[in-house]
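Page 42, continued from yesterday. The earlier attempt failed because a stray header line got pasted into the input along with the sequence. Redoing it now with the clean sequence only.
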Amino acid sequence: MTQNPPITVRCGAATDPGLRRRINEDSFLARSPLFLVADGMGGHQAGEIASATVIDEFLEFSGRDSLTIDDVHAAVARARRRVDALPSGSGAGAGTTLSGVVIADVAGEGYWLAVNLGDSRTYRLSGGGFEQVSVDHSVVQELIDSGELSAEAAHRDTRRNVITRAIGAGSDGEPDYWMFPAEAGDRILVCSDGLSSELEDSRILEVLRDETDPQAAATRLVHEAMISGGRDNITVLVIDAVVVRTRADHSGERDTVPAAPTTDVEIDGDTLPRAVAAGGF
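This time it went through. Structure tokens are written below.
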């Protein structure tokens, strides 16, 4: 690594299988320049294998100063091939979500490059504003977008874990990407739906503001999700931008790279692709 990476960070990470599951099917990578969470689905350890396979595909980038969107997109494609090729009995038919940020360098300036497939989430706390960067690939989100379901009702809807894109599980959905300039003081939260399904965004924000240390924030969020029910695996990454390389002509504008929509769910609270819930691919 160079002496002056695009973004210098502090990071905290915490994960727990929750109160109802024996196995933690979440996997994560919290090693600069990558901060990713994968929530496996499929049961019988298949989800655990799928999520670990995806994270493993990104390990080779650990220690670099930054990545490009081509790096990330190629790694997703390789991960998809590996998950699809898992042999019978070792995760065949399993799938996983993927969400998070990587550090990018745009003309010498530090940027966050966010990636998302499924309903794990990436949030940003910056300058007092808190927003969900990623957009859930889920049936409930589609109903919200169409006006058929309110955001308040969505949190209680029984279809909230039915997802429309994944890596594996018969889905060929492409990831969404967002590229936006980093600011010193940014706090990024990446989590599996074991957090977002238990805590309202307002409570997540309170914890992020209360806990200045990223590890303390990650640990507390997992703990509070457990107290609230712990019905799924819970994984939380909290990433703080300590130093950001900038240029004088920094515009502050966000570029969005859209991805084409696809289709693809839940058994006993677990996340599985849509076609499985409908009776198979």
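Notes: The helical segments are 46-58, 69-84, 139-145, 151-154, 193-196, 201-210, 214-227, 274-277.
Reminder to self: strip header lines before submitting.
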